[in-house]
Amino acid sequence: MKNSIYLTLLLSAMLLVSCSSDENDGSRIRLKVASVNAPGISGKSAAFTSKVNEGIVFTDFRISIRDVVFKNDDDPNSSLDTDEIQFRGPYQIDLLTDGDAVTQTIGDAFVPDGLYKELRFKFHKDEDLPTNDVLYDKSIYIEGTIDGTPFVFWHDTSENLDVGRTTGVEVAGGVVNFTVEFDISQFLSSLTTIDLHQAVDGNQDGLIEIFPNDQDGNQDIADTLKDNIKETADLIDR
């Protein structure tokens, strides 16, 4: 009986080592999401150096995403429309903590070897968060000041975002970093130049509100800023 138990334990241990070895030898993509400030900007805020937006400061930037998919260019069956989602989510990602640009690691996904040029994720407004969470029912959130007056921007878009790299990144064993990077310095100029000084405090409550159904009259700025933020996203391997 003792020999039988010993043999069973030995076989289980060998199987565990084998599985662990297979996982360690597999190709993995480590997904990160990051933000960067404008070159030369230091301190505890993301400021803007262009003359049109002098006096604009961002102090908080967060996004909520889900359903991350990677496209393998070496696999004819690989598609960004596939149901094979590597990261299901949702994930709430804080990219500007106390005004400092932040990088957050989402996790590792085992993937087939190949050349990866694109990934897709979906902005996701998460209704399962506590109602007092700033990202409750929102997918993008920013706080800051306009010439010293506080403002808040948010959007509840549920759009897909495709991020690519023309040369691609070769994945062949080991861990390869994929970072989706948002350039904060381009948020007000990437697609359309936004003069954030045009945002108004329509209800005179001391807070400039910029979102799709705000009471201050800044809905058009909210949609343009959302599109600009999406445009700044880039895929890098670091």
Automatic annotation (TrEMBL):
Query: Does the keyword field hold Signal?
Result: yes
Lineage, top-rank taxon, reads Bacteria
**Keywords (A to Z) from UniProt:** Signal
Q: Where is the signal peptide?
A: 1-22
Species per Swiss-Prot/TrEMBL record = Lentiprolixibacter aurantiacus
Q: What is this protein called?
A: DUF4382 domain-containing protein
